[in-house]
Every structure is written in C-alpha cells, then in structure tokens.
Amino acid sequence: MDERILSLASLTVLELSPPQMIEVAVRAGYSHVGLRLEPATPEEYHFPLVADGDLRRQTLRRLRDTGIAVLDVEILRLKPHTVVADFEKLLAVGAEFGASELLVAGNDPDEQRLTDNFAALCDLAAPYGLHPHLEFMPWTDACNLEQALRIVANADRENAAVLVDAFHFDRSGSRLEDLASVAPARLRYAQLCDVAGPRPADMAEILRQARNERRFPGEGDCDLHGLLRSLPANIPLSLEIPTVKLLEQGVSGLQRAQRALDRTRELLAQL
C-alpha cells in the first residue's frame, strides 16, 4: 500500500467545530484535515473561522498540539459578479493555517469570465503558497472533467489545478481515459467517496445525494480502483463522505471518520 496523505474533509463531519474535527482526526488516525472557511450554501451551519479570531486561535492551537496539518481550505465560488480581490482575507487565513490547496467552484455561465476570474484568483493566491483547484460538479458551470481542464488550461497559471471528486466524476459522466492523460502537476489532491446506483436523471436528486448521501469507499458502485489508477501515484486523498442518515441515527463524527479511513485503507491495499 502506498503511504500517502489521508485528510478528513469538513463535509464528512460538518456538525463538528474545527477544534473538534481536529481532535476526531487525530484520534481516528488522519494526518491532515480540510477546513471550510466559507459555507457551501446559505443554509449550511457554519463555523466562521475567518471572522472569529478566537475560534481561529483555538483551531491553530489544536493543530499545534495534535500535529495535524491542513491540506486544503474551501469553498470559494466564482460567480458573475465576483470581485476576486475580495477573497484576499480568506487566502491569508488559509495560509495562516498552512494549507497548500484551495477548493474553487465555478458558478458563472460565461466561461471566458470564469476563466479570467480563475486566473486572477491564481495570481492572488500565489504569494500565499495556495494552489486553486477548480472542482467540477455536474450542476455548476464547470460541469465535468473536460470543461474544468479547458478552463484551467486557458487560465494558464502555474499554480492552477483541477479537483477530482469521485462522486462528481461518476455523476458527470467523466471518463477515466481522459483523466489518465491529465498532467500530474494539474492534479495535486483528490476527494474520495463511493457512489450508489446509476446516475439519476434529475439534477436536484444528484445534488441531494452529493450533499447528504454518499457511501464509504468500497460500499458503493463507483470504479474507485480505476479512478485511483488513473490519478497520479500517491496523490493526497481528502475523504469527503457526507452521510446524513448516519448522523441522524446517532453515529458519531469519530465513528464516521474512522469508517471512512478504514475503508480507504482497505481500498488502497487492493491496488
């Protein structure tokens, strides 16, 4: 089995505060975490790390005390009226936590403007040591691997990357042969989960599954062996596996994080 970074993503244990999440990560055996500096939706419960200095200091202290490192910070959305310069405070906080990767969603139907803003974000992020990753999701305006690669290539920035999430890869109909041909420098980490059943015809159902109902690696129908073999060897993996039903059944964040890690290690041992 390859030794690689295995990081606990916020969405897996979204109910936990950042210090609690770090404690769960170290108890379960992770080396890294991902921190959500901006909520993904207005409805999502959010711990305001950027605005709350006390919470930020508590989180930094827990990172120091446990030895857990931060892999990525999320989630920036590039929209039609986005002013990229407004993201600078968030980038500074990401750098303060020692993150190297930045998750970005494309929510602008004007692909040229989206590309220009992504390029500007890469320029703004570079002095902070951050690599913006455009994550393709089938309901966004970077809807599949092909489009995300085109935007990143046209942005033409050294620190630009594409983020492959196993759920979105499956539900967007992206192809393993296309993934295998991507330059490794454009793929600095990936998000891992499993996916149950065929792709729904209804995009709202795909979105619901993405945010609430993923499977642990090896417990669904996704070709995760093929996916991992098509990605760069030893690529860091962020385990992003929201399972709202388990949360509602009282399965703890530690139990869910541990199951995610155990299933991932089993999967990696099979490669």
UniProtKB/TrEMBL annotation:
- Residue limits of the Xylose isomerase-like TIM barrel domain? 23-256
List the Gene Ontology MF annotations in alphabetical order: isomerase activity
Q: Which UniProt keywords apply?
A: Isomerase
InterPro entries assigned: IolE/XylAMocC-like, Xyl_isomerase-like_sf, Xyl_isomerase-like_TIM-brl
This chain's protein is named Xylose isomerase
Protein source organism: Pseudomonas moraviensis
> Could you read off the lineage of the organism from its UniProt record?
Bacteria, Pseudomonadati, Pseudomonadota, Gammaproteobacteria, Pseudomonadales
